[in-house]
Design brief:
globular, 4 helices, single chain, Arc Repressor Mutant, subunit A, alpha+beta, about 100 residues
Length: about 100
């Protein structure tokens, strides 16, 4: 039986940015890590050494933040003890295989 709930599947399938972020984070070179950092310059979200927030306006930053939120809410990534660092869960790897 799959570890993915219907809710998790709906959230991620509905969000192209969440799918992209999860897929990159699950690549072997990414070690299952997503990094989120906010500075004066704006929001940075990275996985597999790729910067996803390439347009630094409020709308772009909000949409990439929503992708991280969707992945967390779906249980596909979990925050670590380090601020802004997220790890892919077993359910996240299961979902990435289906994408």
């Amino acid at each position: 039986m799959s570890r993915l709930s219907e809710k998790a599947q709906r959230l991620v399938i509905a969000s192209e940015k969440a799918r992209t972020l999860l897929s990159e984070a699950c690549k072997p070179t990414a070690d299952g890590v997503i990094l989120r950092n906010r500075t004066k310059a704006g929001l940075s979200i990275r996985a597999n050494n790729i910067e996803f927030v390439t347009v630094h306006n409020a709308e772009s930053q909000a949409s990439w933040q929503a992708a991280v939120n969707d992945l967390c809410e779906a249980g596909l990534i979990d925050p670590t003890d380090h601020s802004g660092v997220f790890e892919v869960t077993a359910a996240g790897y299961d979902m990435a295989e289906k994408l």
